[in-house]
UniProtKB/TrEMBL annotation:
<keyword id="KW-0288">FMN</keyword>
<dbReference type="Pfam" id="PF10590">
    <property type="entry name" value="PNP_phzG_C"/>
</dbReference>
<comment type="pathway">
    <text>Cofactor metabolism; pyridoxal 5'-phosphate salvage; pyridoxal 5'-phosphate from pyridoxine 5'-phosphate: step 1/1.</text>
</comment>
<feature type="binding site">
    <location>
        <begin position="60"/>
        <end position="65"/>
    </location>
    <ligand>
        <name>FMN</name>
    </ligand>
</feature>
<keyword id="KW-0664">Pyridoxine biosynthesis</keyword>
<feature type="binding site">
    <location>
        <position position="122"/>
    </location>
    <ligand>
        <name>substrate</name>
    </ligand>
</feature>
<feature type="binding site">
    <location>
        <position position="81"/>
    </location>
    <ligand>
        <name>FMN</name>
    </ligand>
</feature>
<feature type="binding site">
    <location>
        <position position="130"/>
    </location>
    <ligand>
        <name>substrate</name>
    </ligand>
</feature>
<comment type="subunit">
    <text>Homodimer.</text>
</comment>
<feature type="domain" description="Pyridoxine 5'-phosphate oxidase dimerisation C-terminal">
    <location>
        <begin position="171"/>
        <end position="211"/>
    </location>
</feature>
<keyword id="KW-0560">Oxidoreductase</keyword>
<feature type="binding site">
    <location>
        <begin position="190"/>
        <end position="192"/>
    </location>
    <ligand>
        <name>substrate</name>
    </ligand>
</feature>
<dbReference type="InterPro" id="IPR019576">
    <property type="entry name" value="Pyridoxamine_oxidase_dimer_C"/>
</dbReference>
<feature type="binding site">
    <location>
        <position position="194"/>
    </location>
    <ligand>
        <name>FMN</name>
    </ligand>
</feature>
<feature type="binding site">
    <location>
        <position position="184"/>
    </location>
    <ligand>
        <name>FMN</name>
    </ligand>
</feature>
<feature type="binding site">
    <location>
        <begin position="139"/>
        <end position="140"/>
    </location>
    <ligand>
        <name>FMN</name>
    </ligand>
</feature>
<keyword id="KW-0614">Plasmid</keyword>
């Protein structure tokens, strides 16, 4: 089969303005819970898009760790490529691909660093192996072999076998302050439903977009 012949119909139902919640975070949480209830693999997985100094876009998948009216939160190595690019240009976009439900959510906004208090709270809640991995990996740097990474991990595991693991200074979180959120629901004959929430001074403007 040729790639151009791969297609399917979207038939899980449409999205109407009357069904939308007035606050996009409430709408997102409603859809997220439905994705969780549907048993989707990694329902909190989202693509984070950034750009470098030359305007070259980069994308990678991370896990959403918190969301409220203040924004969407994720954590990373602060020396990573994504963190360095956010340092130079805080404007980012997020994308949630819930294919099984024939839905997508696209978020635009500006990322800001979380406080040390927030970082410590979340880091302490992670499994010990994940804490060690965060320290062992100098994210985005070049390494000669996987053995180097595994050796560092084992060294740290022995070092902190009987004690608490300190939060590394090069690790932390970002909150993406929302400027817009688009909700996309697949429709028959490619007549998809799209609604864009745009942040205004005191309210959210809701517009239907053509597919």
């Amino acid at each position: 089969m040729e790639l151009e012949d791969i297609r399917r119909e979207y038939s899980k139902g449409g999205l109407r303005r009357k069904d939308l919640k007035q606050n996009p975070i409430d709408q997102f949480n409603f859809w997220l819970q439905q994705a969780i209830d549907a048993g989707l693999t990694d329902p909190t997985a989202m693509t984070v898009a950034t750009v470098d100094e030359q305007g070259q876009p980069f994308q990678r998948i991370v896990l959403l760790k918190h969301v409220d009216d203040e924004g969407f939160v994720f954590y990373t190595n602060l020396g990573s490529r994504k963190a360095q690019q956010i340092e130079g240009n805080s404007r980012v976009s997020l994308h949630f691909p819930w294919h099984t439900l024939e839905r997508q959510v696209h978020v635009t906004g500006c990322a800001e660093k979380l406080s040390m208090k927030d970082n410590i709270k979340y880091f302490s809640s992670r499994p010990k192996e994940s804490q060690l991995a965060a320290i062992a990996s100098k994210q985005s740097s070049r390494i000669s072999t996987r053995g180097v990474l595994e050796g560092k991990f084992l060294e740290l595991k022995q070092k902190f076998a009987n004690g608490e693991i300190p939060v590394p200074s090069f690790w932390g979180g970002f909150r993406v302050k929302v400027e817009s959120i688009e909700f996309w629901q697949g429709g028959d004959h490619r007549l998809h439903d799209r609604f864009l929430f745009s942040k205004q001074e005191k309210a959210w403007q809701i517009d239907r977009l053509a597919p």
